[in-house]
Amino acid sequence: YPVIKKMLTRKPNFYDQFEHYEKVLYVLASFKKKEDIPFIKNMLSDNILWLSFHSFSLMRDYPDDSYLDIYELFSKKIFYRKVCNESYFNSAIFFNSIASYKNVRSERILSLILNRKPFMPCINDSGYIKRNIVLAIWDNPCKEYTTIRNQIKKDAQGYLEEKRKSEASALPMELDSAYLPKDTSSEPIRWW
Question: Phi first, then psi: what are they for 125, rounded to 5°?
Answer without folding.
Answer: -65, 115
